[in-house]
Specification:
six-stranded parallel β-sheet, 15 strands, 30% helix, 28% strand
Length: 326
């Protein structure tokens, strides 16, 4: 028997309870894992609270991230004792996820735990960190140079944003961090590497088709009117890596930034990211993130505390990363 957070639906309400399960109840897969840690992402918060249509079937064990040790495998790529990481692939949405002491998964979804990281560190990074790395790499590949000017990071107090701030600073970029909690989180964001703090309300006013050019590039986790404002403010030949919709999935903008300033809007997805690209991103994360990141950007909780944290993350009340010890 093992412990799990299980979601059920009753009268269209999502209910989250801690249950004892048996191995035989796990879904199909060719690798069985003893889970050490999971993490709480915004998507997990939506799933657990029922505020978003994330879960495709019930009952469901949430958790789009996990790390642990292989205990059984019928796939030659993984042997008992191997340390592995999973992020994405619809786990925690359509296939039981990481918020349980055991998980049975498809070997194609796994990557080996990078040698430079331990399990807890990998979940401090998690989907949020992987997404941030993919965003930063996209800006680098698009030709955004550290010496060219400031890079903006929206939603900087969140999981993706805080890792993006750290990574960009480590690569020598000047980072302007956008947050609605400057008084509370400003010093922390500067400790991660932000050059300055920008108030969120400055980006929430409706955008004109083109505005003053302020940013050589940006990582946007918010979407909607904030992304529209950022696009209107990006320098000629700049780029924006967009990976989130915390502010909405609409985009009230025009074609002007794209056809008059050659601005590039780069869509970033980590869920279906192919193995080679995923492995390269994990390797870069293990190389770039300083020891201070792991000390400053994480809160560890147990499974019983997750529902409360899930409610908080959907309200924008979580700073940095939440790691769940299984």
């Amino acid at each position: 028997m093992f412990k799990a957070l299980v979601l059920n639906q009753h009268d269209k309400q999502t209910l989250a309870t801690i249950e004892q399960l048996d191995d035989s109840q796990l879904p199909e897969g060719n690798v069985l894992i003893d889970v050490d840690y999971s993490s709480l992402n915004y998507k997990d918060g939506l799933a657990i609270t029922g505020k978003g249509k994330i879960v495709r079937q019930f009952p469901m064990v949430p958790g789009i991230d996990l790390t642990g040790t292989v205990c059984e495998s019928s796939d030659e790529r993984y042997q008992p004792g191997d340390k592995v990481v999973l992020t994405g692939w619809g786990v925690g949405e359509g296939h039981w996820g990481g918020m349980a002491q055991k998980a049975r998964l498809n070997a194609d979804w796994l990557v080996p735990l990078p040698a430079a990281l331990d399990g807890k560190q990998s979940m401090m990074i998690g989907t949020a960190g992987l997404t941030a790395m993919l965003c930063v790499q996209a800006l680098v590949d698009a030709g955004v140079k550290p010496q060219a000017g400031e890079v903006l990071v929206t939603g900087a107090s969140g999981g993706v944003g805080s890792v993006a701030v750290t990574l960009l600073a480590q690569l020598g970029y000047q980072v302007a961090a956008v947050t609605g909690r400057a008084a509370e989180n400003g010093d922390w964001l500067k400790s991660l590497g932000a050059s300055r703090i920008t108030e969120r309300h400055e980006l929430e006013e409706p955008a004109r088709p083109l505005e003053k050019q302020l940013w050589v590039g940006a990582v946007d986790t918010v979407g909607s009117k904030v992304l529209a404002k950022v696009l209107a403010q990006v320098d000629y030949d700049g780029a924006v890596a967009a990976c989130g919709l915390a502010g909405g999935f609409d985009l009230p903008t025009t074609v002007m930034p794209f056809i008059l300033r050659n601005v590039k809007l780069l869509g970033i997805d980590s869920v279906m990211c192919p193995y080679e690209k995923r492995m390269a991103a994990w390797q870069r994360l293990s190389e770039l993130l300083p020891a201070s990141f792991y000390a400053q950007a994480c809160r560890e909780v147990n499974l019983e505390e997750v529902p409360e944290c899930a409610e908080a993350i959907t309200r924008g009340q979580i700073t940095g990363r939440v790691v769940i010890k299984l």
